[in-house]
Write a sequence for this structure.
C-alpha cells in the first residue's frame, strides 16, 4: 500500500506561513519528528509519494528519495491518501477496505482509500485531476478527523507530542559519553542520551516533568539545564542554555540563552543570551545576541498573529511567541512582541523598541521601517555563505524556489515598503 | 522643473544632512559624502520616491558617485517613461 501526501491547498498552506513557504506542510515538525514521520509511523505504508506545490518540487526532489509530483505513483498499488494536517494519533481509518473518500464539512479530502482497479482511468495530468476523479467516482463519506489548523497549534502541542513519541520510541539510558558531575532529576527511565552525544560536566537534565531525548552526536556544554519534555536533535550544540520544557531543537542547531516551548528547525542558531518562548523557528535562521521575544501579554489575554500583514488572528492561547521564517536573521538586541511574524529571508535590525508584529518575507527592516534593502541577491549570497559554513549547498533549484516565494510575497512586502517610505518622507 | 542633477543633489543633501552646495558630481557617496550602508538604502528609496521610478537594488547600489547616480536615474526614467528635465 502506498501513502499519498498532497499539499495543494493555498488557503490551508497560508495558515502555516512563513514556515510552509519553503517546505511542504508535512515537513513541519512537532515533538520529536515531522508530521510526515508521524503519519508514516501510524499508517506503515510500503511506499510514499508526495505531491507538493510546483514551485518547490525541484528542491524537494533533492531532499527525499521517494517520488515527488509524479502521477505515475497514483497507479500500480492500493493507495491511502491522507491530508498531511490530519493528526496522526487520531487517524483511525483502516488501510484495507472498500474504496472511499472521507470529506470534512467543507468538502476537503481528509483521506481517501483507493484500491487497485477502483478508478477506470489510469493516467492523470496532475494531482488535481486525480483528486477530482476519486471524489466523483468513489463513495464520499463525511468524517471528522482532527487536523492541525495553524502553525501555532504545533507549538502548543509540542510538549505532549514529545512525551508520546518518547514513550513510543521505548528508549532510555546513556549511550553517549558524559563527564561528572552531571545531575539527572526525575527518573532515569525518562532520559535517553544517544550514541555519540557528549555531555560536558555541570549539566542538569531534569526529567521530573517530562522525558528528555538527546539525539546522536549532540553536544551539551557546561551549565546547560535541560527540562523535559525536550528533544535535542542530532548534531545540535547547547551552549550553557537554559532549555526549559517543551522544546524541539535541531538537527545541527547552536542554542544558548533561554528557550521554552519552542520548535527550531535544523541549522538555526541562537548562540547567545536572550529569551525565545512559544516560538516556531525555520531553517538557517540566526538570532543575534539578546534577541528576545515576548510570549505573554501583560493583561494575559489571547495573543493574536498577523499572517497576511493586515488582520490579526486570535490564536486562542495566551502564550504564543514568534513565527520566524527560513534564512531570517535578527541583529543583536532585537525585541519581538508576542505573536510576531517574521517572514522568510528577512533581515532585521533592532531599533531598541519591539518590532512591528508583521515583517514580510525578503524585507530588510532597517531604522524602524520595512525597506527593499540590498535586495534578494544579497540575501541569496548570505544564504549561500551560511550554508557553505555547514558544508551544505545553495542550489540553483533553491534560488528558483525562493524567487517564486519572492513573487508570491511581493504584494504584502510592497505595501509595507510604501508605508515605510511615507514615514521617511514625513 | 529642476534638472535630474539638482534633484539628485537635493535628495542626497536631505538624506545625508549636507548642504547642496557641498555636493559635487564626482563625489563618492561613501568616501566623500560619508554615506553608511543603511543610508545607501535610504538614498535608493528616496530617489525612487523623488522620480517615481523602480530601481533594481543591485544595480542602484553599485552606483558610486553622484554623477553616476544622475546618469543611472536618467536612464531608468527614460526606460520607465518618466518625464525629466536633463
Amino acid at each position: 500500500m502506498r501513502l499519498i501526501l498532497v499539499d495543494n491547498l493555498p488557503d490551508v498552506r497560508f495558515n502555516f506561513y512563513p514556515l510552509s513557504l519553503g517546505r511542504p506542510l508535512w515537513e513541519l515538525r512537532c515533538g520529536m519528528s515531522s508530521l510526515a514521520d508521524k503519519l508514516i509511523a501510524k499508517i506503515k505504508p510500503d511506499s510514499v509519494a508526495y505531491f507538493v506545490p510546483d514551485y518547490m518540487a525541484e528542491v524537494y526532489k533533492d531532499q527525499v528519495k521517494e517520488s515527488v509530483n509524479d502521477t505515475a505513483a497514483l497507479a500500480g498499488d492500493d493507495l491511502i491518501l491522507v491530508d498531511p494536517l490530519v493528526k496522526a494519533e487520531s487517524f483511525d481509518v483502516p488501510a484495507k477496505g472498500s474504496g472511499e473518500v472521507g470529506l470534512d464539512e467543507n468538502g476537503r479530502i481528509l483521506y481517501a482509500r483507493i484500491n487497485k482497479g477502483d478508478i477506470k482511468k489510469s493516467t492523470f495530468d496532475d494531482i488535481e485531476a486525480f483528486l477530482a476523479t476519486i471524489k466523483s467516482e468513489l463513495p464520499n463519506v463525511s468524517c471528522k478527523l482532527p487536523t492541525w489548523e495553524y502553525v501555532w497549534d504545533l507549538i502548543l502541542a509540542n510538549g505532549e507530542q514529545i512525551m508520546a513519541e518518547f514513550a513510543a520510541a521505548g528508549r532510555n539510558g546513556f549511550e553517549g559519553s558524559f563527564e561528572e558531575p552531571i545531575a539527572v532529576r526525575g527518573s532515569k527511565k525518562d532520559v535517553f542520551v544517544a550514541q555519540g552525544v557528549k555531555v560536558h560536566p555541570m549539566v542538569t537534565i531534569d526529567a521530573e516533568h517530562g522525558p528528555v531525548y538527546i539525539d546522536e552526536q549532540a553536544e551539551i556544554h557546561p551549565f546547560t539545564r535541560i527540562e523535559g519534555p525536550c528533544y535535542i536533535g542530532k548534531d545540535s550544540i547547547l551552549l550553557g542554555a537554559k532549555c526549559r520544557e517543551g522544546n524541539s531543537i535541531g538537527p545541527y542547531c547552536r542554542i544558548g540563552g533561554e528557550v521554552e516551548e519552542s520548535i527550531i528547525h535544523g541549522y538555526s542558531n541562537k548562540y547567545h543570551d536572550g529569551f525565545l518562548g512559544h516560538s516556531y523557528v525555520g531553517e538557517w535562521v540566526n538570532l543575534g545576541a539578546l534577541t528576545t521575544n515576548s510570549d505573554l501579554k501583560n493583561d494575559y489575554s489571547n495573543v493574536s498573529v498577523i499572517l497576511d500583514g493586515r488582520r490579526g488572528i486570535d490564536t486562542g492561547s495566551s502564550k504564543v511567541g514568534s513565527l520566524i521564517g527560513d534564512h531570517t536573521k535578527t541583529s543583536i538586541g532585537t525585541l519581538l512582541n508576542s505573536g510576531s511574524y517574521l517572514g522568510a529571508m528577512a533581515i532585521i535590525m533592532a531599533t531598541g523598541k519591539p518590532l512591528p508584529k508583521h515583517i514580510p518575507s525578503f524585507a530588510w527592516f532597517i531604522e524602524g521601517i520595512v525597506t527593499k534593502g540590498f535586495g534578494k541577491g544579497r540575501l541569496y549570497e548570505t544564504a549561500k555563505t551560511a550554508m557553505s559554513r555547514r558544508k551544505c549547498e545553495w542550489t540553483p533549484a533553491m534560488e528558483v524556489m525562493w524567487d517564486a516565494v519572492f513573487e508570491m510575497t511581493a504584494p504584502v512586502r510592497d505595501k509595507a515598503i510604501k508605508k515605510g517610505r511615507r514615514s521617511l518622507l514625513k | 522643473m529642476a534638472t535630474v542633477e539638482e534633484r539628485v543633489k537635493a535628495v542626497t543633501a536631505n538624506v545625508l544632512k549636507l548642504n547642496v552646495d557641498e555636493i559635487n558630481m564626482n563625489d563618492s557617496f561613501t568616501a566623500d559624502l560619508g554615506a553608511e550602508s543603511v543610508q545607501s538604502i535610504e538614498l535608493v528609496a528616496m530617489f525612487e520616491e523623488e522620480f517615481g521610478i523602480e530601481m533594481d537594488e543591485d544595480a542602484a547600489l553599485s552606483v558610486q558617485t553622484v554623477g553616476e547616480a544622475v546618469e543611472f536615474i536618467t536612464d531608468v526614467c527614460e526606460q520607465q517613461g518618466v518625464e525629466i528635465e536633463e
